[in-house]
Amino acid sequence: MDLDIRIGNNSLPVDIKNPFRFDISAVMNDIIEFGNKNKVALESYELDKLITRMIKGVAGCEAGCPSDAHNVVRQGFGNFKLEYVEGGILTAVQHLENSRELEIKIFPDF
Question: Which of 5-19, 32-46, 57-71, 94-108 is the least confident region?
Answer without folding.
Answer: 57-71
